[in-house]
Amino acid sequence: MSSDVRFTDFKSDKQPTWCPGCGDFGTMNGMMKALAETGNDPDNTFIVAGIGCSGKIGTYMHSYALHGVHGRALPVGIGVKMANPDLEVMVSGGDGDGYSIGAGHFIHAVRRNVDMSYVVMDNRIYGLTKGQASPTSREDFETSTSPDGPNQPPVNPKALALASGATFIAQSFSSNAQRHAEIVQQAVEHDGFGFVNVYSPCVTFNDVDTYDYFRDAIVDLDETDHDPSDRDQAKDKILESEKEYMGVLYQDEDSVPFEEREGVEGSMAEIPDGAPEGAMDLVREFY
Amino acid sequence: MPEDLNWAIGGEAGDGIDSTGKIFAQALSRAGRHVFTSKDFASRIRGGYTAYKVRTSVDRVESVVDRLDILIALTERTIHENEDELHEGSVIIYDGERSTMQDVEVPGDATALEVPLKRLAEDAGGAIMLNVVALGAACEVTGFPIENLDESLEKRFGDKGEAIVENNKEAARKGQHYVQEEYGEFDYDMETTDEDYVLLNGDEAIGMGAIAAGCRFYAGYPITPATDVMEYMTGRVDQFGGKVVQAEDELSAINMALGAARAGARAMTATSGPGIDLMTETFGLVATSETPLVICDVMRSGPSTGMPTKQEQGDLNMTLYGGHGEIPRFVVAPTTVSECFWKTVEAFNLAEKYQTPVFLVSDLAMAVTEQTFSPETFDMDEVEIDRGKVVDENDIDAWLDEKGRFQAHFAAADGISPRAFPGTTDGAHMTTGLEHDELGRRTEDTDVRIEQVDKRQRKVETAREQEDFDYREFGDPDADTLVISWGSNEGALREGLTLLEEDGYDVRFLSVPYIFPRPDLSEEIEAAEDVIVVECNATGQFADVIEHDVLERVQRINKYNGVRFKADELATEIKQTLDTPAEATQ
After folding, report:
1. Which among B501, B499, B521 has a CA at the least distance from the CA of B510?
2. What domains, with CATH codes, occur in chain B?
3. Given B216, B245, B251, which is nearest A271 (Cβ)?
4. In A147, A249, B40, B465, which residue has its Cα 20 to 30 A from B221's Cα atom?
């Protein structure tokens, strides 16, 4: 790990194909800044992404990376971290990826509390399939597959996380570069599963949840007297469905990551040339 | 008195049938007798008929037969369920004092031994030991030295304290003495030997093989009959620096294993048919990301949830063809319990050498069958590890492009790229299920697409050159009748051959553990007059692939660069094909 890592070291030479103005640019920049700030370099970092616009992130960043199948990025990240806890593991996905097809994995990743960060680019729409309702779309949001709106309330991912025993819940806004990078950095530094929902507007298909909307609506928790260590306060803020918050909503400072509780020590990549010493004991057990 | 003895205990699920059967099987194994066990069980926790059967002989036993010599019946139904296997010399042990067993009619000329199992167990310290009373009774009937049963009881109850062990030994003696006093001498004399055997089932052998092969990460979701693999590895792999994670579902399990494998660990997941269905989504990702992964399918009766506790070899096509698109893969199917160990070791080597998914296909019959082996059958010194083309800081330079980027999907002549574990300096690279270039970056370039598809397919050709995908041969090599089988049928077929020989039939039998790539059986098939393929399924899935292998070859025109056929292009291709000798396109 070198000390002179800059965030641009995490940038690949592939030009993003995101639409001009897409919130994902800011989200990614914040992720790169956070990784560099925490002293990581591309060779000890593993980025996992799912499918969709957000899933392209692994291609635009430079690190060890895997771009998987829709909704399954979190299990991949868990496997990477369990097999080598020395790696910095960051998982990124979108609202469809994380809260629809991957919702089951989301709540179980939260309760498993492996030491990694999960950055969700929440634009409240399916972008890459050209504008269908996502699980975080508003109830009356009209799309090609929901002409009268989805007619069901949006998923509240922060509430799902809190109910599942999350140890770190934060929300961020991709356009507020400095705050966003700080929040992701806190998630990376958290000992456990650092979950950040990032408002990352889709300028092409979502004309409701726009930059302007978020700029007006968002309240920075740093400018309130919110105490992130207080779970009840966090619960109240998370359940205020009309409010949009930015900052760390909840953090359990006593969090102990799953792999640590399970006694995983070091990388599993090193194995002996033959069967491990004492392997005949495995046979003798069957006498 | 038969040379081999067939023994069973049956009752309701929850009666401790399994553990009682296992205690007896272990006692036999410790007495130097070979054992082959089988189970009849239903898909429920309590109630319903269940039985544990033990076939034992001083010679190796490889299969079950339709004959029961001694039956411990804890319920009346147990007798009816096994009526066809009882003969005039059979001995049935049951508790005639129990209200449910008072009107038991023993079929045929079988001998009925009414032993007050529950009462004698209570005398020894608790009714719960009634099964052990029955074991003691069985020892007396068979002339089996009860000291061997004692050792087995110590192993089973040792961690519950000495008092429990002593009570159980006492319970066994009460059963033994009761039979001695009430029924006198029996014609059995169970021979023992000085051999020390180990007794294990196919799932345990797979788990043991995985740990021996250096598997350090296992993720799975409980499902019959694959759960024993996970239960075996839990706790044990930790001793070697590994971990088992119970995932939230099979989708998660295979993706966790994939992640661990990308991080450099030897990783595995195991499931059964319905779980394989869910995992199928990720097969292509494993293959195109060129991640070494062992995916074990312990088959059961399908389709859908089918008959979860019954035998079937119905998933062959699923493991051969499952997943959209076309991917290189290996399908290996152990044919015996000991092969479950060795083929698992081989599966890990194949996975890492060729950076592909390897399907390890077992079945319920093998999973629940416990069999005795000499410990040296699993000689750990024979385990070889081949991690393939792993590069580190010292040799990574050779694999960097002109801009210093690691070519994780380098289109090598043998189809096998270098592998850098995360953490390796200068090795950072992207990998994806999208078609990609040598750097792992997404592409839709038609030439790169073809290069990468060809590169991945070349692995199979390289493996065909480097590996020995052979079969095992039994019976008469010159026989006109050729029988071919795969999976757990080998034992029954080998014994069946002996019976056929006695009746004057000469048969050549090939047991094939490699489904893909598989040995070319064309010569063997052509040399035979009759070819019979044996498998536990309705449609003959392996027979289909073998028939396919011996069909006359058709010439092929294939296109896979992502663009549809065009008329002028097709005309040219067809002309070229017609001008090329047929054998050149095979």
Report:
1. B521
2. 4-183 (3.40.920.10), 200-382 (3.40.50.970), 396-466 (no CATH), 472-579 (3.40.50.920)
3. B216
4. B40
